[in-house]
């Protein structure tokens, strides 16, 4: 089957009087592995379920799969494959029966059912467990059965609701690679919902970050990480330092002046006014007291002095919290190497950052 | 030192366990085993034989009784299913205001056993009962609702359908919504969805309820006797023993068949649920999708519910009419109303009431003591073989009152109680013991549930502060279980107060008889129906009040526990 495009236009949906989706506009390209990322209550699961036809009817908007608007169709007429968070395998049926169910509902001839079930189970590597019941399978195996049960009917698109959340850490990594392999093999447009950014980063071609029923930003994982459009996206994807301040005109150029005595050069086209400076802890370098003079203060590098508040050893990095002037606190990460000198609480230090690693946001 | 303390703890638990085991052996296992043994004994030669069973199946009356019992039990399950399934479906599928009403129906089999309302049903639905008189007058035909076995089926099924209703509703509302959504996602909907996914998932609940109905009906003695249907197994066993005597092997053969079929029905329900992990509720996803009813659907649903309610409450309505009516014969309603039956009951029937309170109270008290001990030994010690106590305590469910009664007669008829100088089998205390064994499963279930909700950490905290095992049980475990124990006591009391089958066999003189026996005796004669019904109403009131109290206990402890849970949660946060 050919990969299908999903187009969502101005989708509004409410539980009673609480509006959960407030005007979603989104295009998911054919064959894309797309992630909905957001905190709980952001509406990401509701959006996924709306595509499958579950939950309250949208009060407005269109959901177009391929060329067909499915928003008014009941779930059983949408041919949209969904894998549920808890797998929802029917305990009264064997693995084989679970997988055959959708084909039986579609009145596929018996011989073809057998062939396709076998093929689907082969694809997820569980053919030999076909006669087991779901309760006799491990979490990872149940996940595969749920997947086989869904793809065997050759749905137009594949929806995965927090597919990895019920697995333990090791299995999760293995399973997400497998999901990706399967998706590439089938070429099926896939959406998966997660609150785990690592999951989204490693698997998704593109993703949408949701908060409070609104899509905050859409893009590739790297775009979103490097160029968040607002404070929410910046804070939700990894840790970010954010410093409040103003962009002002100075000596023919533009400068950001923020709390804690932070002064950063900004591009000349940046408008004046209230702003936030956002930068990632790993982009900040630490200079010990005394080193600062030796560091060549190049064009486009800003440094600020402070005092170490605490140092946390996180394995691959050491995360320092630094207090600048006015009690302003920033985080910075140093890669950890054996034998490295670790600053102690109270020691003075200077932090430097390349101006191009800083992003200026207006609220 | 520590080892010695450990040893003492084990000894205390072991002594408790052994005492309970002894009670269960003497008053449950051995009497039932004795019944089985005698059934296989040649009455003349004293050798083991199958000849009694051959005799049984060679006698046409017994063959007929056997098939009648089977037929009545199965048909009762069918009729009860027809009543229960729509009700369960309404409450779990729709946002429906009648749901609360349907749930209260659940207590009906507890507050009034079928035999109490049997005669009243005869007055309403019998050949010359109110309904048929009206039908005949208006439409010129009658329906044989109460004709022979039909009557037994009708009375039993409208009393016991709540067992299916409760279990099925519980199963249905435990189904994870995602189970249903997954099926819809794959193209199933409507009746196919119900048949292929929803109903199979609710099957364990249905099977449990259906098995209970089958077992109750198959073992019931009072209802067929009062409806004058004697060609069924339990009545035959009773009649053989009471007319021919305890030497007649047929009563024992029938007892064996009753037990075997009871076990069989439990086994079938076990098979239906085995190996299927249906506890599929996940956080946040519980329960099937509920939707609002459209107006005309609401009208239809209410119509069905009102109709079912009228049928279900008809024994109660009939009983009230009977108790207040003067003469009620060949008429839609009694000729006139009076309170003289109640006056008669209050002047002459006090001993029945007093005996009932004494017997049921004692039996229930013993039950919760036994049940608490069993629950503790099984769940909180590691004594070898402790599970046996649990099995035995629960197995009493499968032993009909008739069988236990016959077992006691056989075992204890020549055992003279010292000081009283009376055979144990005819001493009133044996009635208490029979009630105790019969109701032990109820108390055991309540106490086990209560104990499982007491965190082991609470006991460990007490022991850490120096409390010994006995003192931990007394000061921590029992107080925390109090709600469950109280509920167990009240349930055991309420159901023991209206137990008839074992009582019918074990009452040796009128002055020892409890309420259920009194109702039975009164109801036998046309003149006694009024007072009998008045007694029945009294019984319903006693049991109803007790059931209400039990409900209150359960609710209150749950509220307290939830409050404590909230505290703990906020404390942790």
Whole-number count of domains of chain B: 2
* Structural shape of chain A: elongated
Total of helices of chain A: 8
| Low-pLDDT windows of residues of chain A | 293-297
Strand content of chain B: under 5%
Mean pLDDT of chain A: 89
Strand content of chain A: 35-45%
Chains forming the largest contact: A-B, 31 and 25 residues
> What do we call the CATH topology of the largest domain in chain B?
MetI-like fold
DSSP summary, beta strand count of chain A: 20
Low-confidence stretches of chain B: 1-5, 279-285
Total beta strands of chain B: 4
Number of domains of chain A: 2
Helix fraction of chain A, binned, reads: 10-25%
- Helix/strand order of chain A: EEEHEEEHHHEHEHEEHHEEEEEEEEEE
Keywords:
heterodimer; A: 363 residues; alpha+beta; Rossmann fold; OB fold (Dihydrolipoamide Acetyltransferase, E2P); five-stranded antiparallel β-sheet; 36% strand; B: 573 residues; mainly alpha; MetI-like fold; two-stranded parallel ribbon; globular
